[in-house]
Design a protein that fits this description.
The protein is an alpha/beta fold. The chain has eleven helices and twelve strands. The structure holds beta-D-fucofuranose. One of its GO terms (molecular function) is carbohydrate binding.
């Protein structure tokens, strides 16, 4: 039985108040990370029949062309709302124009899009990725200072996320911008690990072959950090608060807290994936004919290893 019901036109005309379901088509990036799994779970547990929704979920396997196909399907099925967690920022103008012409509101979640016309989407909710990059530099500067290393030559490598995604762009650019204030820090190399553990491990292996003097790894998500940690261990080196190499990561998923407690990761900059209720709130307001904020940033924290054991039980993902 198809989740895309043919009775959608009914729900469209009489709305949720009649007991009909609001149909939401959600184009998800993929299943590349723990963050993504938590995000999918948040969306699926929010957009349930009990809550008055019919969710049509599509996993794009990290490919924008699959997302564009999914959005076209949603348009054809005449869903009530289209929600997109976009892989990359660019390339959305045409398909969003089609959604606009079909009169279907589009809500962007997590990563941002870069379109020529802002009316192509109704609202966005997600993280301030540039700020996350800034936070990473701030943490590192303070850490080096505390450990009497502030005047040392510091060699850094970066495992980047999917190139062209807001999470990659913000974290890379934010880090680069703020590290310019530290002339003794050198970025040896940056390479994408596609936000996955296996690719993160692979790239870290090659970094370790090229450089024998790496002081810091910046992994643009936790899963790539896990891969990097495995590569470092396999190379006979150590990492974390008492190790040879400092590991800075992003997301702060549950397994990152485990790594910090075990002593292999130094810090994880939080990125909150629990967007389901936030998107539902936007839809509720739109259904009630209210206006919504165009851009909604989620508040996030920084979790260094020394706080991990205490904080872990309070984490929801
Ligand atoms: O950091 C990473 C995921 O876009 C914020 O995507 C998201 C990023 C997250 O694969 O783990």
């Amino acid at each position: 039985d198809s989740p895309a019901s043919g009775d959608k036109s009914a729900s469209k005309s009489d709305g949720a108040s009649s007991g009909d379901l609001i149909v939401v088509g959600f184009s998800q990036v993929g299943a590349e990370s723990d963050w993504r799994t938590a995000n999918t779970e948040s969306m699926k547990s929010t957009f349930t029949k009990e809550n008055g929704y019919e969710l049509i979920f599509d996993d794009a396997q990290q490919k924008q062309e699959n997302q564009i196909k999914a959005v076209r399907n949603f348009i054809q099925q005449d869903v009530d709302y289209i929600v997109i967690a976009p892989v990359t920022e660019t390339g959305w103008d045409t398909v969003l124009q089609e959604a606009k012409e079909a009169g279907i509101p589009v809500i962007i979640v997590d990563r941002m899009i870069d379109v020529s016309d802002d009316s192509l989407f109704t609202a966005w909710v997600g993280s301030n990725f540039l700020q996350e990059g800034y936070d990473a530099v701030k943490w590192l500067a303070e850490y080096l200072e505390k450990n009497g290393r502030k005047d040392e030559q510091i060699n850094i490598v970066t495992l980047q996320g999917t190139i062209g995604s807001s999470a990659q762009i913000g974290r890379t650019d934010g880090f680069a911008e703020k590290m310019a204030a530290y002339p003794n820090w050198t970025m040896l190399e940056k390479q994408t690990g596609e936000f996955t553990q296996s690719k993160g491990q692979e790239v870290m292996e090659s970094f370790l072959k090229s450089y024998d003097d790496i002081d810091v790894v910046v992994a643009e998500n936790d899963n790539m950090a896990f891969g990097a940690i495995d590569a470092i261990k396999a190379a006979g080196k150590t990492c974390g608060p008492n190790g040879d190499i400092i590991i800075i990561s992003f997301d702060a998923v549950a397994a990152a807290f485990d790594a910090m407690i075990e002593g292999t990761m130094n810090v994880s900059i939080e990125c909150n994936p629990l967007h389901g209720p936030r998107v539902a709130e936007i839809i509720k307001k739109l259904e009630a004919g209210q206006t919504v904020d165009k851009l909604q940033y989620v508040e996030e924290g920084v979790f260094p290893a020394e706080t991990a054991a205490e904080i872990k039980p309070t984490r929801a993902y």
